[in-house]
Design goal:
CATH superfamily of the largest domain: Aldehyde Dehydrogenase, Chain A, domain 1
Shape: globular
Largest sheet: 7 strands, mixed
Number of strands: 23
Structural class: alpha/beta
Helix content: 25-40%
Strand order of the largest sheet: 16-17-18-15-14-19-20
Number of domains: 2
Radius of gyration: 24 Å
Number of helices: 14
CATH architecture of the largest domain: 3-Layer(aba) Sandwich
Bound molecules: NADP nicotinamide-adenine-dinucleotide phosphate
Length: about 525
């Protein structure tokens, strides 16, 4: 069993005391252990702020972008090893592992290109200069890196992408990182961190890796530190009560639960191209990473008269899914990541099933193909069917974080579809499948403000669209309300969280000389 360690104050340290044990979710064998006992979290933050911050702020966007490029290359060289670790600790298929690992290197590479484009500057300009008098008195709104540490706390489901999508944006903005993966699946993020550190790419103090419990880390955040948290709404709610956030105004970005929707509208009738794309995307999102994606579809909203056909089409595809130990190459969906997850997903399916009917799957124990007898955290891909949107409140309230979604019939009106989407209280993404422009326009007015992203799949772009569950570095990721109210990525937009915007008023000639902003 491997002993994982933390990288704190530019030293690897194993921590002391009781360890948390990480397991292979297909076999329940222990694969690694870790602890953060004895680590001085206040000193870790101070080191990042005082050593890493100044070093990064002294660099231009182009130079920081080059660091990201080197990180992407170093990780890519170890791709096969990383995919294997992902399979062993996260339980997904090879494809699931690629989604996570390549998502991490792809996002680093994407932000490296943004750094190259932003060039030899150290600050960003928000809009054109504002004239405040008839002569020389003006204001520049500029973004400068915050002189603190960027704390990142990540969920178990994307140890690679979750870690490095945040690292990419922070480093490019000029902030040192203190990053913590979820303990249960930390092996992959630990190995990736080791590769980055061994490659000696980053300046001293720019990267701190906490492998295990956060301890009292968040009791020490200051006004110019930031917290980017990804995880459950419950944990987010608790963390928001910490004094740094309530009284210290430490910026916090929350990426939490989401009850994402797929909506079939007019002209996506059974058998049409849009219908087939909708079914393909829904099945992909339900089963990829065993449904443990914050962007996975949970609610499938369909015109009443197509409900039987849609349930049949999805159930038929799900019946081909082979659940089991991903070491067995016939397996197309692995286990959920932990014993707690398995318990929560089964209980969640039961809660939803109390208000709906089960089309296929359910909460019963599943013997995984290729897994030791009675071992592994397997769950059947599960499709449920509600009578209507209002008879199943749990469907709009409970995120079952596994391969589970519910079909909800509606009357076909755009306004009604938008109302049902909004019942989720704020989502990361909704997808529509329709070629009816009037319907789409009405739907967007009602539903877009309840989502961080909407994929409008229409016939002419059908071949080009990516599944809605895929988060792209150049599009916003986050969502309002229960999704946490956060906003990550989105190209240059993502940098703003790690920078302070200041309106600087003064003499236009002098400011043009002392501020390092791109000339208009
Ligand atoms: P979780 O239980 O809330 O844990 C998330 C992270 O918070 C872990 O790193 C955990 O560390 C840490 N944590 C827990 N208590 C803490 C505390 N008191 N102080 C500091 N850190 C603390 O969530 P999860 O089970 O890992 O992830 C699943 C959830 O994440 C799902 O609800 C999913 O929707 C959501 N998610 C959202 C997004 C998004 O982008 N919106 C992406 C992925 C997942 P330990 O592991 O050490 O306890």
């Amino acid at each position: 069993m491997i002993r994982l360690s933390s990288f704190v104050q530019d030293q690897w340290t194993e921590g002391t005391g009781d360890t948390a044990v990480l397991v292979n979710p297909s076999t329940e064998e222990a694969v690694a252990e870790t602890t953060t006992g004895g680590i001085d979290m206040a000193a870790a933050l101070a080191h990042a702020r005082t050593i890493g911050g100044p070093a990064l702020r002294a660099m231009t966007f182009a130079q920081r972008g080059d660091l990201l490029k080197q990180m992407a290359n170093a990780l890519h060289e170890h791709r096969e090893e990383l995919l294997t670790i992902a399979e062993l600790n996260n339980g997904g298929t090879r494809g699931d592992a690629k989604f996570d690992v390549d998502g991490a290197t792809g996002t680093l590479a994407s932000y490296a290109r943004i750094g190259e484009k932003l060039g030899d500057h150290t600050m960003l300009c928000d809009g054109p200069v504002t004239r405040l008098s008839r002569a020389r008195f003006v204001a520049h709104h500029v973004w400068m890196p915050r002189p603190g540490a960027a704390v990142h706390i990540n969920a178990f489901n994307f140890p690679a992408w979750g870690t490095f999508e945040k690292v990419a944006v922070s480093i490019l903005a000029g902030m040192p990182v203190v990053t913590k993966p979820a303990t249960a699946t930390a092996w992959l993020a630990w190995r990736m961190s080791q590769i980055i550190i061994d490659a000696n790419i980053l300046p001293e103090g720019a990267y701190t890796f906490i492998c295990g419990s956060a301890g009292d880390l968040l009791d020490h955040v200051g006004p110019h530190d930031t917290l980017a948290f990804t995880g459950s709404a419950d944990t987010a709610g608790f963390l928001r009560t910490k004094a740094g956030f309530t009284h210290g105004s430490t910026p916090v970005n929350i990426e939490a639960d989401s009850l994402n929707a797929a909506v079939l509208g007019p002209k996506a009738e059974p058998g049409s191209d849009l219908w087939h794309i909708a079914v393909r995307n829904i099945v992909k999102d339900m089963t990829q990473k065993t449904g443990q994606k914050c962007t996975a579809v949970r609610r499938i909203i369909v015109p009443e008269s197509w409900t039987d056909a849609l349930c049949e089409a999805i159930a038929e595809e799900l019946s081909r899914i082979v659940v089991g130990n991903t070491a067995d190459k016939s397996v197309t969906m692995g286990p959920v990541a932990t014993a707690n997850q398995l318990r929560d997903v089964r209980a969640g399916i039961d809660r939803l099933a109390a208000e709906t009917s089960i089309v296929c799957g359910g909460s019963q124990p599943v013997a995984g193909v290729g897994a030791p007898d009675g071992k592994g955290f397997f769950v059947a891909p599960t499709l449920l069917r509600a009578t209507d949107a209002d008879s199943a409140p749990a469907v709009h309230r409970d995120e079952v974080f596994g391969p589970c979604a519910t079909v909800i019939p509606y009357n076909g009106d755009a306004e009604e579809a938008a109302r049902i989407v909004a019942l989720g209280g704020g989502s990361l993404v909704s997808a529509t499948y329709t070629d009816d422009r009037k319907w789409l326009g009405s739907f967007l007015i009602g539903a877009a403000p309840w989502n961080g992203r909407v994929l409008a799949c229409t016939a002419k772009v059908a071949d080009e669209t990516l599944p809605p569950g895929m988060v792209l570095p150049n599009c916003l990721h986050g969502g309002p309300g229960r999704a946490g109210g956060g906003a990550e990525l989105g190209g240059v937009r993502g940098l703003e969280f790690y920078m302070q915007r200041t309106a600087i008023q003064g003499d236009s000639g002098i400011l043009a000389k002392v501020l390092d902003i791109p000339t208009e």
